[in-house]
Amino acid sequence: MTAPGRALFVVSAADHWTLRDGTRHPSGFWGEELAVPHREFAAAGWRITLATPGGTPPTLDRLSMSRTAGLPGTLREVAAYLGSIRDELAHPAALDGIDPDDFDTVFYPGGHGPMEDLSHDPVSGALLTRALRSGRPLGLLCHAPAALLAARDADGSWPFAGYRMTALSNTEEKLNSFGRKAAWLLEDRLRAEGAHYVKGRLPLLPFTTADRNLYTGQNPASSGRLAAHLLAALGR
């Protein structure tokens, strides 16, 4: 019998996103983006470790549970699932104590939180660099590719340069009034670093892409599809 796989879920510890004028917009992780992939991996028998910077319990972005975030039935399912993993969320591992080689795959859910902390976190950046070089599947969703900005090779170059990837688009970011006040936009930064950024033809609809062992999803609606692609790549 095949032993269950091990998946590392790296979640932002930020509870806000600092806007261009210095305002702190309440934020954290996006409910659907954590709940749906976690549910799919757990249903497939995977052992999941949640980790955050400093081992700080992550904050749920309340906007992700509002009526503008999805259909009522979907939001109820997300809320129920997050409730079922309440203990895991309350006691995450500290990211600086994690060895990525202990895991078969690494996954980062989004929300605006990663824009605040993981985008410049050296521990996360080093982990992502090692995960990419390992050849094992690496997945990032929506705003989570902001964490890639902290990754650097020994010579200071960006290990993800030239990789095809997606993330929340400028158009999607600006659909929120506070998004227009962003200090920087993720699509712009990824392009500037040298990513081959791609997006779906229409905003807010599921869109995923893969390049070698890097798997990315554009928005919350891509949560289930990205999880399915990762599981297929892992052969589980």
UniProtKB/TrEMBL annotation:
Keywords: Lyase, Stress response
Any one GO molecular function term: glyoxalase III activity
Coiled coil: none
Pfam family, one: DJ-1_PfpI
GO biological process annotation, one example: methylglyoxal catabolic process to D-lactate via S-lactoyl-glutathione
DJ-1/PfpI domain segment(s): 32-230
Similarity comment: Belongs to the peptidase C56 family. HSP31-like subfamily.
Protein name (database record): DJ-1/PfpI domain-containing protein
Organism: Kitasatospora setae (strain ATCC 33774 / DSM 43861 / JCM 3304 / KCC A-0304 / NBRC 14216 / KM-6054)
